[in-house]
Design brief:
- The structure holds two protein chains of two kinds.
- By secondary structure, chain A is mainly α.
- In chain A, about 95% of the residues lie in helices and about 0% in strands.
- Chain A has one domain.
- The radius of gyration of chain A is 60 Å and the shape is rod-shaped.
- Chain B has one domain.
- In chain B, helix 2 crosses helix 3 and helix 3 packs antiparallel against helix 7.
- In chain B, about 30% of the residues are buried.
- Classes of the chains: A mainly alpha, B mainly alpha.
C-alpha cells in the first residue's frame, strides 16, 4: 500500500471543490425552492384549517339559526293551536248560549202561544158546552152559575194537559 | 480461461505527472467524476427554475435532494443543524457512490497505458552498489534495443475507482473527522475539548485519552472500511471475469452495485452521526447513547 501525502491533500482539495460547486449550484437553490414550497404548503394548510374552522363556525351558526327558526315555528304553531282551540271553545260557548237563548225564547213563545190557544179554546169550549147544555135541558140555565161550573171543569182539564 | 495475465494491484499506479505531482489512475478517475459533477451542477443551475412544475431533470434532483435532506433531518431532528450538515453529507454520498460505480464500468481496469516513471529523489544519496546496479540495468535495456528486442514497459490501467485507492478514502476520512472537530468547536466552543482533556477525576481523564485515540481510529476505520469493501469487490469481479467471463460475473456486478450504495450510505451516515454527536454537549451525548 502506497500512502502519499500529496495525493491525500490533492483528493481533499478535489472533494472540497466538488462540495463548493455542488453547494453553490445545486444545494442552495434546491433547498431554497424546497423550503419555499414547504412554507407555501404550510401556509395553504393553515389557510385550509382556518377556512375549515370558519366553515364549522358557519355550520354551527346555520344550525343554531335553523334550531331557533324551528323553535319559533313550533312556538307559533303552538300559539296558533292554542288560539284556535280557544276560539273554538269560545264559538262553542257562544253557540251554546245562543241555543239556550233561542230555546228560552222559543219556550216562552211556545208557552205564550199555548196560553193564547188555551184561552181561545176555553172560550170556544165554554160556548159549545153552554150550547150543548141548553140543547140537552131545553131550557136556559143560569148563565152565571153555569159559567162558574165550566171554568172549574176547564181549569181541571188544562191542569191535566 | 483467458491467456492474459491477471492484473491486481493494491495501490494505485501513476499514469502521468503534472508540475511534479504524480497523477495516479485513481486520481485521474476521481478528477473525471468531479468534472462530470461540476458540469452537471452548472448545467442544472442554468436550467433551474423556481416553479411548482419542474422539468424531469429538476424533479429528479429535487427528489434526491429531498430524500437526502430528510435522511439528515431524521438524525439531527434540528433544521439548523440539518442545513449545516446537509451539503457535506450529500456530497460525501454522491461523490462516494459515483466513484464506487465508475469502477464497475467496462474499460475501467482493462484499458492500459504505460506506467509513469518514478521520480528520482535528488536528495537521496545512492550507494556505490546501487549505482552499479542501475547502470547495469540501463546497459541491458540499451543492448536489448540494439538487438531489436521489444522493450517491455510496465502497463497499468488508465482508470481505477478512486474509492479503491487508500489515499482517496484516507482523504475523505480526514475531511470527515476534521469537519467533526470544526462543527464541535463551532457549536460548543472550547468546552468541546473537555471531551478529550478532563482532569475532574481519573476515570474521565482516561476516557478523554480514549476519546482522543478514537478520533484517530475513526480515520483508520472510515478509510479502511470503504477501501477494503470497494477494492475487494473489484478484485472479486476481476477474478470472476478472469475465470469465467460469460454470465457468471453478472450477479457479482449486481452485488457490487448494492455494496457501492451501502458503503456510500454507511460513510455518510457515520459522518452525520459523528457531526451530530460533536455538536451535542457531554450530558446530551450520554443521554443519546443511553
Amino acid at each position: 500500500m502506497d500512502i502519499q501525502l500529496n495525493q491525500i491533500i490533492f483528493q481533499m482539495i478535489n472533494f472540497g471543490v466538488v462540495l463548493g460547486v455542488l453547494t453553490y449550484f445545486i444545494y442552495k437553490p434546491v433547498l431554497k425552492l424546497l423550503n419555499d414550497r414547504r412554507e407555501r404548503v404550510a401556509a395553504a394548510a393553515a389557510t385550509a384549517a382556518e377556512m375549515m374552522q370558519e366553515k364549522e363556525k358557519l355550520e354551527s351558526r346555520h344550525e343554531s339559526i335553523l334550531l331557533k327558526a324551528s323553535q319559533e315555528a313550533k312556538k307559533i304553531e303552538d300559539e296558533a293551536r292554542k288560539e284556535s282551540r280557544e276560539q273554538a271553545k269560545l264559538a262553542l260557548e257562544q253557540s251554546k248560549q245562543e241555543i239556550v237563548a233561542r230555546e228560552a225564547k222559543f219556550s216562552s213563545e211556545l208557552a205564550k202561544m199555548k196560553k193564547q190557544e188555551i184561552a181561545s179554546m176555553q172560550d170556544e169550549i165554554k160556548k159549545a158546552a153552554l150550547l150543548m147544555a141548553e140543547k140537552v135541558l131545553n131550557e136556559s140555565i143560569d148563565a152565571k152559575k153555569h159559567q162558574k161550573l165550566l171554568d172549574e171543569q176547564i181549569t181541571k182539564i188544562i191542569e191535566k194537559l | 480461461m483467458s491467456n492474459q495475465s491477471l492484473h491486481v494491484s493494491i495501490s494505485a499506479e501513476p499514469i502521468f505527472r503534472i508540475f511534479g505531482l504524480e497523477i495516479s489512475n485513481s486520481i485521474f478517475t476521481s478528477l473525471i467524476v468531479s468534472f462530470l459533477l461540476i458540469v452537471f451542477a452548472i448545467f442544472f443551475r442554468s436550467k433551474f427554475k423556481n416553479t411548482d412544475k419542474p422539468s424531469s431533470l429538476q424533479n429528479f434532483v429535487e427528489m434526491i435532494a429531498e430524500a437526502l435532506y430528510n435522511f439528515v433531518y431524521s438524525i439531527t431532528e434540528n433544521t439548523k443543524k440539518t442545513l449545516l450538515f446537509f451539503p457535506v453529507i450529500s456530497t460525501f454520498f454522491i461523490f462516494i457512490i459515483l466513484n464506487n460505480y465508475i469502477g464497475l464500468l467496462p474499460g475501467v481496469g482493462s484499458i492500459l497505458t504505460k506506467e509513469a516513471e518514478a521520480q528520482t529523489e535528488i536528495t537521496q544519496v545512492a550507494s556505490d552498489q546501487e549505482i552499479l546496479e542501475a547502470v547495469a540495468e540501463e546497459e541491458e535495456i540499451v543492448e536489448s534495443a540494439v538487438h531489436g528486442e521489444p522493450i517491455h514497459a510496465k502497463m497499468v490501467p488508465v482508470f481505477r475507482a478512486a474509492t479503491a485507492d487508500l489515499n482517496t478514502t484516507l482523504a475523505l476520512a480526514i475531511v470527515s473527522v476534521m469537519l467533526t472537530q470544526i462543527f464541535g468547536i463551532s457549536h460548543l466552543g472550547f468546552s468541546y475539548f473537555k471531551k478529550f482533556i478532563d482532569f475532574s477525576n481519573p476515570v474521565n481523564f482516561f476516557v478523554g485519552i480514549l476519546e482522543t485515540v478514537l478520533e484517530f481510529a475513526k480515520i483508520v476505520s472510515f478509510a479502511f472500511r470503504l477501501f477494503g469493501n470497494i477494492f475487494a469487490g473489484e478484485v472479486l469481479l476481476v477474478v470472476m471475469t478472469y475465470l469465467i467471463s460469460i454470465a457468471v460475473p453478472a450477479p457479482f456486478y449486481a452485488l457490487e452495485l448494492f455494496v457501492g450504495f451501502i458503503q456510500a450510505l454507511v460513510f455518510s451516515m457515520l459522518s452525520l452521526i459523528f457531526f451530530n454527536l460533536a455538536t451535542k454537549g457531554h450530558h446530551e451525548e450520554d443521554h443519546v447513547v443511553a
